[in-house]
Amino acid sequence: MDALTSLLSQLEEWLADPEMVQLGFSALLGLTIFALMIALLLLLMGLSDPLRRRLRGLEAGAATAAGSASVASAGGAKGAGVSQWLGPMGERLVPNKEEAKNRIAQRLRRAGKRSPGAVNVFYGTRLALTVLPPLLLLTLVIPFVRLPLGVNLLMLGATALTGYLLPVLWLERETKKRTRLLRRGLPDALDLLVVCTEAGLGLGAAIQRVAQDLEVSHPELADELHLFSMQTRAGMDSKEALRDMEERTGVEDIRGLVTTLLQSMRFGTSIATTLRIYAVELRDKRTQEAEELAAKISTKMLFPLIFCVFPSFFVVALGPPLLGAMRALAGAGY
């Protein structure tokens, strides 16, 4: 306890001395620049390794052959160039535990990022956003703005924390957006599947035809159906391909559709009839969700009415009578 008290008193003396504060700031700046140089050195070592370059080239070629390059590299050639820089940075930060690695890979797949190096790019982006903005703030802003040391440290910590959390927030946003788009396109896909299966097509051929028809209106769902078709053509069992589609999308409606199709295959019932029944159930479910949202409108409108509309109404309705009463009372001498 005495040692802690003496340490705190010594720290207060250092903070009270402007020269010591300037020296500490210079030391912190030097450590930051040193850490940046180490990070750049590791990045250059990763980029210059011929084995890693060869492996990344093979992975990119396999992703293109699998048909998922258009989704994995949304920014085209620019996105691929950024991935080549961010991949080696995040490769050393990927968790060693398979459970944690599989969890983040599954979240990236549900967001539509299925490239082999998506996990490395994710952690590389997190590292870049955690290190680079505080470094720019430390070198370009703080030296020219005279602020207390505590405020500077708080700004650096907040910037680093924001950069660390931004990739996770972006991933959650992309997952919700893709889930919403998949749910929006599923009723049209079900109707087309019913038409195709009743016309005599098998499940694989019907899904392939529906995927072609939905490329313009619902490209996300069409991409998932195309991937299912490619998996079945490559030799994967239809049941395993359906389970994989359920796992990589994470949409509740698609999970129900896959469960219904698997039960139909297991018991030998008509797939067309099964799809028609599930389409009716899904339509009823959507109707109930819309009715639920409509029933909540009156409750949600209560607060804007009370705090926004009613005060203005009272001012307009009661303002002139109150002003007239005040003038009358003033004229009577009260």
TrEMBL record:
Membrane topology: Multi-pass membrane protein
Keywords for this protein: Cell membrane, Membrane, Transmembrane, Transmembrane helix
InterPro entries in alphabetical order: T2SS_GspF_dom
Superkingdom field: Bacteria
Extent of the signal sequence: none
Residue ranges of domain Type II secretion system protein GspF in the record: 190-318
Keyword Transmembrane found: yes
Transmembrane segments: 20-47, 117-145, 151-171, 302-323
Annotated localization: Cell membrane
Cellular compartments per GO CC: plasma membrane
UniProt cross-references to PANTHER family, sorted A to Z: INTEGRAL MEMBRANE PROTEIN-RELATED, PILUS ASSEMBLE PROTEIN
Name listed for the protein in its UniProt record: Type II secretion system protein GspF domain-containing protein
Lineage: Bacteria, Pseudomonadati, Pseudomonadota, Gammaproteobacteria, Oceanospirillales
